[in-house]
């Protein structure tokens, strides 16, 4: 903490501290680590990330994004969540595709602002994408019945055998758990009453849409799925810079989880008990 310094000075001080205390990694090294982990050239890659977990990379978020696109190549499509469910859970019912910032990390917000990036128009679980399949992935996201289920970028990734990279973050940060919950029709995922949102698209055109939101979070055991997903060939684990990252094969992940949820719709929830009851107005968090 550097409370006595002006904000720009504090920002510079944090950068200097990071540069001297965290392991250094280059863009080229990170791209190579991603390839060794199994990131496919020419594929779709959805990334959840912790920038600080990677170490110190000169160039910051832009260099990390560059390494991700180096790994998938120009034929690949990079996708990052640009979620705004935090604002929605605080009562906001307006969403501007071009102007509403992502609330799920600096990497996603940096990506959202870059040239050539498209963003879906869903007011709680939008994604940003760049690459040959970007327009197809984000198409009509706001009209899907659920934020992450059928007709959303998450399920289109499954269908096209995309991959999910958890870059320095735990398995519980994987939004695609909500996609498989939606596909399985679990009884706890969605609110009963839809909400009306005002959405402004990239052209500045506004329209009102009725959107179904996720219900308050139930305590999950997503992290406990690691062994199952590893055993079924859905997940690989390896070092990326200064962090340990997880790489999921989207379709295999979907099929593995749907098999378990078909047998037990509560499979990913923590054991019943008082701790499982969610406090009011707590979002799902991914």
UniProtKB/TrEMBL annotation:
Molecular function (GO) terms for this protein are: aminoglycoside 3-N-acetyltransferase activity
Taxonomically, which superkingdom? Answer: Bacteria
What InterPro entries does this protein map onto?
Amioglycoside_AcTrfase (IPR003679), Antibiotic_NAT-like (IPR028345)
Pfam families named among the record's database cross-references: Antibiotic_NAT
In the record, biological process GO terms are:
response to antibiotic
* Reactions it catalyzes: a 2-deoxystreptamine antibiotic + acetyl-CoA = an N(3)-acetyl-2-deoxystreptamine antibiotic + CoA + H(+)
Keywords, A to Z? Acyltransferase, Antibiotic resistance, Transferase
Coiled-coil stretches are none
Top enzyme class of this protein?
Answer: transferase
What SUPFAM superfamilies has UniProt attached to this entry?
Answer: TTHA0583/YokD-like (SSF110710)
Q: Which EC number(s) are documented for this chain?
A: 2.3.1.-
Q: Which family does it belong to?
A: Belongs to the antibiotic N-acetyltransferase family.
Name-wise, this protein is Aminoglycoside N(3)-acetyltransferase
High-level lineage? Bacteria, Pseudomonadati, Planctomycetota, Planctomycetia, Planctomycetales
- State which gene encodes it: yokD
């Amino acid at each position: 903490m550097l409370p006595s310094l002006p904000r720009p000075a504090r920002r510079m001080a944090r950068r200097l501290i990071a540069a001297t205390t965290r392991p250094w990694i280059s863009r080229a090294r990170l791209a190579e680590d991603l390839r060794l982990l199994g990131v496919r050239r020419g594929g779709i890659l959805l990334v959840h990330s912790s920038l600080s977990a990677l170490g110190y990379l000169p160039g910051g978020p832009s260099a990390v994004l560059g390494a991700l696109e180096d790994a998938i190549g120009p034929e690949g499509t990079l996708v990052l969540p640009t979620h705004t469910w935090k604002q929605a859970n605080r009562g906001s019912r307006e969403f501007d595709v071009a102007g509403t910032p992502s609330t799920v990390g600096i990497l996603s917000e940096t990506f959202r602002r870059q040239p050539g990036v498209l963003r879906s128009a869903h007011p709680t679980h939008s994604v940003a994408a760049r690459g040959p399949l970007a327009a197809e992935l984000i198409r009509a996201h706001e009209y899907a019945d659920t934020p992450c289920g059928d007709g959303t970028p998450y399920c289109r990734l499954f269908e096209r055998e995309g991959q999910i990279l958890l870059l320095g973050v735990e398995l519980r940060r994987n939004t695609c758990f909500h996609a498989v919950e939606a596909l399985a029709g679990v009884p706890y995922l969605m609110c009963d009453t839809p909400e009306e949102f005002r959405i402004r698209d990239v052209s500045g055109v506004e329209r009102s849409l009725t959107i179904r939101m996720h219900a308050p979070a139930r305590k999950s055991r997503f992290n406990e799925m690691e062994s199952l997903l590893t055993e079924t060939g859905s997940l690989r684990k390896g070092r990326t810079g200064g962090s340990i990252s997880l790489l999921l094969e989207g379709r295999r992940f979907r099929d593995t989880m749907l098999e378990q949820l078909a047998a037990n719709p509560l499979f990913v929830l923590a054991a019943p008990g008082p701790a499982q009851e969610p406090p009011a107005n707590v979002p799902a968090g991914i």
